[in-house]
Amino acid sequence: MVLGLVAGGALVADTVARDRTEEQVAADLRTQLGGLDTEPDVAIGGFPFLTQVLAGELTSVQVTAPSIQIEQVTLQDVAVDLGGVSTGTPTTAREALLTAHLPLDEVRGAIELPVDLEIVDGSLRAATTALGLPFEAVLAPRAAGRGIEVAVEAISLGGATISLDQAPGGLADDVQGLTIPVQGLPEGLQITDVTLTGDGFDLTAEGQDLVLDQAATG
C-alpha cells in the first residue's frame, strides 16, 4: 500500500510538472513569436516527464495553432512536431516537421504578382491579357526550400493552345519563373511538399538540428 501511495504521488508530481511546463512553453511562444494571436497548444510526449528533464532531452513536443503570421503571409492550421528537444540553452531539436495551410488569398494580398492566380477545377492557373486576348497558363506547384515554385504544364492564348516560346512579350518569363516565397519559417526548416487544395496550398516543411531560440527570436 505504501509503495502504491508513493508511486501515485510520483505520478501526480510528474503530471503536474508536465502540465506547468506545457503552459509555460505556450506562454513563451506567444511572447517570442509575434505572429501568434493566441497561445498555442503544447503537448509534451514521453513518460515519465521528469526523467526526460533530468536526462536533458524531451522525446517529443507537439505545438499546434489556428494561425501564425510569418512576414507577409498568415499560415493556418499550423502543427509542429519536434523530436529530441533539449532542456538546456540554447534549446535545440534534433528533428522537426511542420504542416500548415497557405490560402491563395494570402498570397494575392501579400505578394505582387505579374498574373492573376486562381484555382479552377483543382488546377492552379495564371491568367492575364496579351495582345487583347485572354492568356492562361496551367501551373503545377512544387516545393522549393523557402518557397513554392511552379512549373508550366500548358498555356493558351485566346483559347488556342500554344507553346511557351510562342507566348507574347515577357509572359514566358513571368509564368515560367514564378515563385511564391514563404519567408519567415524558422532557420533550418525547408518546404519539402506542396499539395494544391480547394483554396490554397497544404505545406510540409522538415528540418534537422534546429536551434529553437534563434527561430523564436527571428
Describe the structure.
- InterPro entries: DUF2993.
- Pfam families: LmeA.
- This is DUF2993 domain-containing protein.
- The chain is of the alpha+beta class.
- It has two domains: 2-101 and 192-217, no CATH class; 114-177, no CATH class.
- It contains five helices and twelve strands.
- The strands form two sheets. The chain has a six-stranded antiparallel sheet with strand order 1-2-3-4-12-11.
- The chain is elongated and about 70 Å long.
- The termini are far apart.
- Mean pLDDT is 85; it is low at 1-10.
Query: What would you call the shape?
Result: elongated
- Please tally the β strands and state the result: 12
Query: Approximately how much helix is present in the residues?
Result: 25-40%
- Total individual domains: 2
Number of helices: 5
Beta-strand share of residues: over 45%
Cα distance spanning the termini:
52 Å
The averaged pLDDT comes out at 85
Instruction: Enumerate the spans where pLDDT stays under 50 for 5 or more consecutive residues.
Output: 1-10
Oligomer: single chain
N-to-C SSE string, H for helix and E for strand = HEHEEEHEEEEEHEEEH
Strand order of the largest sheet: 1-2-3-4-12-11
Structural class, judged by helices and strands? alpha+beta
The biggest sheet amounts to:
6 strands, antiparallel
Indicate the radius of gyration in whole angstroms. 23 Å
Protein name: DUF2993 domain-containing protein
Pfam families: LmeA
